[in-house]
Amino acid sequence: MSQKKRLNIIIKGIVQGVGFRPFIYKLSIKLDLKGIVINSGSGVIVEVEGNKYNLQSFLLKIHEEKPVISKIDIIKVITLEPVGYPTFEIKNSINDKKNVTVPPDLATCQDCLEEISDPNNRRYLYPFTNCTNCGSRYSIILGLPYDRSQTSINKFTMCKFCKEEYKDSLGKRFHSQVNFCPYCGPELKLLNNKGQILSYSLEALRQCINELKAGKIIAIKGLGGFQFITNARNINSVNKLRKYKNRPAKPFALMYSSLEAIRTDCQISLLEKELLISPQAPIVLLKRKTNNSLNCNIAPNNPYLGVMLSSTSLHYLLLKELNFPLIVTSGNINSEPICIEEGEAIQSLGPIADSFLVHDLPIIRPIDDSVVRIIQGRKAFIRCARGYAPISLMMNKQLYSNYKKFINIPNVLAVGSHTKNTVAILKNNQIFVSQHIGELSTLKTFESFKNTINSLKALYQFKPQIIVCDKHPDYVSSHFAKAQKLPLGKVQHHYAHVLSCMLDNQLKPPVLGIAWDGTGYGNDSTIWGGEFILVLNNYYERIAHFHPFKLPGGDKAIKDSKRSALGMLYEISNFKDNLELSFLKEFSKQELSLLQQMLSLNINTFLTTSVGRLFDGVAAILGICYENTFEGQSSMMLEHATISSETEDSYTYTIREKKYPYIVDWKPIIKEIIQDLLSKVPYGEISVKFHNTLAEIIVDIAKISQIKNILLTGGCFQNKYLTERVIFRLEQENLVPFFHKHIPSNDGGIALGQIIAEIIHK
Fold first, then answer.
1. Sign of the C-alpha dihedral, residues 208, 214, 218, 223?
2. Which phi and psi angles does 597 have, rounded to 5°?
3. Which residues on neighbouring strands pair with residue 427, listed in sequence order?
4. In the chain, what is the greatest distance between 2 CA atoms, to the nearest angstrom?
């Protein structure tokens, strides 16, 4: 009997645009195997034949030696009789069903950075250098399978040198779809803020460097869209950028030339270092050193800095000639998507930018920088975009085998939430979650939202059969969903939070979800945000929540933390008992009288159980933050106050346990906080005690529920101290805590939860 066999192998996951076919080719040659490898719309198809022992080794090494930036979700292997392949070849792609994961954009690799630093290399100082292992992917792709002809690079024809590299099976650009060089690739040009050309190529680069040294603000066309960049050590530049972007306090992200440069201003742990130098190169929140040389206006009253290394060859070349870090922030007007087209950028950003550094490589879709931080010893997303998006998650059949609906899942489009919007699609048991889109409060962001949906539909030949949206009466996404004339599912916001965390951790019911955030429309027409949600096989139940309080002025209270504090005081006492509190003095007598009338007469007030608003109120009572000039500012500053103190103490609270839902009464907490404040207890100690109390509340409700698996989800769990304290206390009580792995705990995960709700509960 012949020892030779043939294997037909289908590999799905992130296996296109990451050097997977060249890897399979080289591995086959090494093991003396014959056959073919093909990109298809559903993944990579391999036909390989040879000695059965070599084939066994081949299968093993696919997992052990695959490209670092690849990800295998599914591998199917069928054993067949050999057909006599003479060689091993990379064949042209086939255009079958579309279900492959689109590769994300990746930062320039070290090999390419060395090339552009080498005067003897033809790519010396070329700002668009990339290879099989790095560069643009998702931002330039037009269709699947991933081939040059299906990207915006197809406008550039490879020169003879690049063609030779493309065919060289031993080179790093073997079958690289994004291969080009100074002779055949994109070109830089520098424009003034009226759009007039000032210079080209290396001269444009040099002139831009000189303008940065002079403190100018440059709008640069980056990997996923335009960015503003300027000297982070120039106070005038920083202040000008803050003024024109209407961003008085929100921290700016910084880009440094090296790890050594970052260490002059920040502390870097081993895990943080790995994230900084990873192919994804996200913005990482780092603890700033007390003796850092940056002016405080980069991140006012903030012990953390958002820091990254260069994400493209262009950024690397700029920083190489500068002895200061750059502010790098999205090139947009507040609340709008980042610009991706030159004309649009000049019109929108011209009043802010002194010059524009642009190029002629079309960007198909806008992508912001990803933002992460280390919580409990691992990566936690604040924003998921460049380097990670789109996210692909497989539906585990074993987890959902009890649900009849799972047997025949329809194509589902989930349109996410109103803020921090992402969208998601479900096709063939696979979920694809888009990049961060933003807040759907402007026409341009809504257009970006629709474009992202259309882009996913086109990439995956996806036709939705059902649309799901947030259960909210006036969300833009809800109106969009209704307009599609398809069956419409509405999912309660906090339930979606819990389900997203459940799938993110590959869990199945029963679970207890702790869903804490700023705002979410509740089933009782009030504003939820301090929820304890029990998920069982056939239903979910809100088993507990925080005692509701009134927000005077409704949406105005989201930005005005003092109003949250006022609503809380209204629940516990007459204002006259607490006139010594500093935040009350921030109101005029007329304004305070009006707000008191609104509360007492219940005019233009909304009830809320939100822990996010509770954070706002405590921050205002302490005088730490009176106004949220950006989302979560008060909560962030209250978290930062914990750094200065250590205590195991907590405050008093009660849980009313007559029947579900139990009510967590926070009023004793606020009374004791006020007592501590008036007794001159340090803010830091009060903040730690407040956080500790929230953790104790979770432990108590978890014990009452008698559920083992506890899920932490919602924007409040971006708080490092709170999340780590809760995990510590739950583990002490022999409970099993989970928080998000692949998606943010904030509203960026809502679309994923909406899809799971459509599958398991109606």
1. positive
2. -65, -40
3. 430
4. 97
Give the pLDDT confidence of 414-440 residue by residue, as tens digits.
999 999 999 999 998 889 999 999 998
For the chain, helix (H) and strand (E) counts, in that order, are: 23, 31
Report pTM: 0.93
Residue 546 one-letter amino acid: F
For range 240-257, the mean pLDDT: 94
- Asked, as a colleague might, if the bond just before 510 is cis with ω within 30 of 0, I would say yes
Tokens at 236, concatenated: 């005038």
pLDDT digits (tens, 9 = 90+) for 550-601: 999 978 889 999 999 999 999 998 666 677 889 999 999 999 999 999 999 9
Asked whether 640 and 300 are in contact (CB, 8 A), the reply is: no
As to burial, measured by CB atoms within 10 angstroms (0-12 exposed, 13-18 middle, 19+ buried), residue 729 is middle
Which among 586, 515, 549, 528 is positioned nearest to 669, based on CA atoms?
Answer: 549
Q: Distance between CA 666 and CA 645 in Å, rounded?
A: 22
CA neighbor of 388 nearest in space, from 283, 251, 290: 283
Could you tell me if 629 and 561 are in contact, meaning their C-beta atoms sit under 8 angstroms apart? no
21 is catalytic: yes
Tell me the three state secondary structure of residue 646: coil
Would you list the DSSP string of 712-732?
EESGGGG-HHHHHHHHHHHHH
CA distances to 196, 205, 233, 285 from 354, rounded to whole Å, are: 12, 15, 18, 29
Q: Containing H/E element for 241?
A: helix 235-244
In sequence order, the 6+-apart residues with CB closer than 8 A to the CB of 324 are: 231, 232, 233, 234
The pLDDT tens digits for 167-202 are 998 889 999 999 999 999 999 999 999 999 999 999
**Which of 386-400, 503-517, 558-572 has the least mean pLDDT?**
386-400
Catalytic residue among 6, 8, 21, 563: 21
> Who contacts 277 (Cβ-Cβ below 8 Å, separation ≥6)?
259, 309
Find the catalytic residue in 6, 8, 39, 154. Answer: 39
What integer pLDDT is reported at residue 1 of this predicted model?
44
Looking only at the bridges linking them, the beta strands covering 226-231 and 218-221 are antiparallel
Closest CA to 598 of 633, 641, 554, 635: 554
| Helix boundaries (H) for 66-139 | 110-116
**Domains of the chain with bracketed CATH:** 4-90 (3.30.70.100), 188-359 (3.90.870.30), 390-489 (3.30.420.360), 517-739 (3.30.420.40)
**Using alpha carbons only, what angle is made at residue 739 by residues 733 and 742, rounded to the nearest 5 degrees?**
155
Bond from prior residue into 67 cis (ω within 30 degrees of 0) = no
Instruction: Name residue, tokens 């210079």.
Output: 199
Quote the CA–CA distance of 130 and 140 in Å, as a whole number: 14
For residue 690, the SS3 value is helix
Residue 198 burial (CB < 10 Å; 0-12/13-18/19+)? middle
Q: How far apart are CA 581 and CA 565, in angstroms?
A: 11
State how far the Cα of 752 lies from the Cα of 495, in Å rounded to an integer. Answer: 11
User: Of 67-76, 540-549, 724-733, 735-744, where does mean pLDDT reach its minimum?
Assistant: 67-76
- Is 39 part of the annotated catalytic residue set? yes
From the list 541, 516, 542, the residue with the least C-alpha distance to 746 is 516
Instruction: Give the burial class of 85: count Cβ atoms within 10 A of its Cβ; 0-12 exposed, 13-18 middle, 19 or more buried.
Output: middle
- ∠ CA(714), CA(715), CA(719), 5° rounding? 115
Distance CA 630, CA 124 (A): 42
> What span, in angstroms and rounded, lies between the C-alpha atoms of 112 and 91?
27
